[in-house]
Amino acid sequence: MIFVPLILAHLLGDFLLQPNSWVADKEKKKLGSVYLYIHVLIHMALVMIFLWDLNLWWIVAIIGITHFIIDGMKLLFQTSKTKRTWFFVDQLLHVGVISVLAVIYFPYFRWEDFFNPENLKLLTAVVFLTVPSSILIKTLISIWTPVTVEHSKLQTDSLVNAGKYIGILERLLVFVFILVNHWEGVGFMIAAKSVFRFSDLAEAKQRKLTEYVLIGTLLSFGIAVITGILVKI
Q1: Residue 118 shares a structural domain with residue 222
Q2: Any idea which of 54-58, 67-71, 193-197 has the lowest mean pLDDT?
Q3: Containing domain of residue 200, as a range?
Q4: Could you point out which of 33, 53, 125, 135 has its C-alpha 20 to 30 Å from the C-alpha of 178?
Q5: Ramachandran region of residue 44, left (φ > 0), alpha (ψ -120 to 50) or beta?
Q6: Closest CA to 128 of 166, 172, 89, 94
Q7: Would you say the pTM of this structure is higher than 0.70?
């Protein structure tokens, strides 16, 4: 498998061996920046070093060409408002190219291997623990939503949709801990959230709000735990 060496080359080339001054020059001069071409050459050199096989020159060439095209698109189309979005698009495209090359290179790869029952079971569980679980929990506790939530100090100082994403991340982490048989990680997650979350609730002095958040937290952890157990058995 060549996936890991290609990812390592990408991480070194895109993050460790690319100074901020190069990035600034590329954003200013775009395709006219000499650092764009140096950056691509560094990536090709790293790929060649980590693969260490002249017979794989075609992979080096594809990495270089696609990297130039992807970075060029990013420089030409990104704006100050879309810079964050283009960063993720850029990285996803690079990883996508590496993944395709790894699949093409691996001689025993079969697409049907990705769709075996075990993989589909894991994928279904992960999808369920994201947005579907958030909607389910929100619906279950909606009848108890205290009026004071909208007027509390905790709510006005909260980031947009922060609770939703915190819930998704905590469920996925709990799911992983259960799959790898490290239940102590679940306890750590509960303790960590209690320290940060419920200290704020105590300060807000909103008992109804505290109970509301506690019910949501227990539902979130409970769903993740049950999902993990079902997947394992």
Answers
A1: yes
A2: 193-197
A3: 114-232
A4: 135
A5: alpha
A6: 172
A7: no
